[in-house]
């Protein structure tokens, strides 16, 4: 597993990170545990901040894929 740091602490990234459909719930649960009521917009904002700060191109790509997934989930929620 890869490890990365976010404003809310260090996290492990399992190999199926991008393919796992529970990522949004996992991120929300992590933030809720820290007392933050996370909206999709807040999660997207955190991912955008990670992309801006990240120097490793592989991790930057993973964050971009995660952001795209979050945005797609939000759009799917509103189109139903």
Automatic annotation (TrEMBL):
Superkingdom of the source species: Bacteria
Gene3D superfamilies listed in its UniProt record: 1.20.5.5260
Protein name: Uncharacterized protein
